Amino acid sequence: MNIPVEFTDSLRQALRKRGFSFNGVASGSFALSPELHIETPANVNAELGLTYPLRIGAFTHLNGGFIQNVTIGRYCSFARDVKIGHGFHPMNWLSVSPLQYNPSYRNWPCASGLPPMTDITRFQWEKHTIIGSDVWLGNGVFVQDGVTIGDGAIVGSSAVVTRDVAPYAVVVGCPARQIRMRFPDIIVERLLRLKWWRYLMSDFGQLDFSDIHQALERIESLLSTGKIKEYQPEIIDASIIKQEWALLASPERRRRCAFKPVIKALFKCF
Ligand SMILES: CC(C)(COP(=O)(O)OP(=O)(O)OC[C@H]1O[C@@H](n2cnc3c(N)ncnc32)[C@H](O)[C@@H]1OP(=O)(O)O)[C@@H](O)C(=O)NCCC(=O)NCCS
To answer: What pTM did the predictor assign?
Structure first.
């Protein structure tokens, strides 16, 4: 059953305590997707579409924009105004209007009497976008639905990503084109073999992050001794959010209901 969830200050506070800091807007929050999977800690200042599959990896920071129907890896940094998962409209039907497949669209009266929505016509959300770990998206990046951006990639500000981006590639422009790789192939291969983002950075100990050769050597040797274990984060999913909301909702609603008659009475006076 779908419980209506409202992202009030108290719900945000409760989620923050569990490691999910969410300061953005929740779009479509009345029907949380069962495929909502947020590893903690994660920090989201963006507007999130929560009715479609959404996965965010631990230590990822989203700083604005609109994001939905996407899987994002760990240790990613997204700048302001990033847009992912906007969906699309039919292009070779009679019309581009969603009225053709969604009779309740905007509650417009002309929608009644139209054929009901079917699974076949929910086509526009099929293209799930995948973004790897350690990815940096610059200001104002637009990512087209269904694209895969590989681990370690960098996307320059204002780029429009229409094709898959290779791991550790740096791409810019509209449409985005590769200008270089972050590292030589041999280093990229080692990084992709290691997948260091499975671990807590602090487990790497005293490590010079700015020296890629030394850093790789140290992590490789740590892993070969089996001294560090993969990070197992707490997960925030739809059931946790609903649980927290259910705990908070009743007293909050009671407080709001208590104020309603006072406000109504005040209006009547004028
Ligand atoms: C992608 C980026 C990291 C590339 O940096 P870089 O490797 O130092 O690139 P350079 O400045 O050497 O530029 C290389 C080429 O790409 C072009 N280029 C760089 N950034 C570009 C961009 N955002 N859009 C279009 N072209 C760009 C340069 O004009 C240059 O082209 P040229 O070779 O024809 O002269 C950087 O340009 C960028 O966009 N950073 C994001 C900034 C941001 O959004 N910060 C928010 C903080 S989270």
So the answer is: 0.89
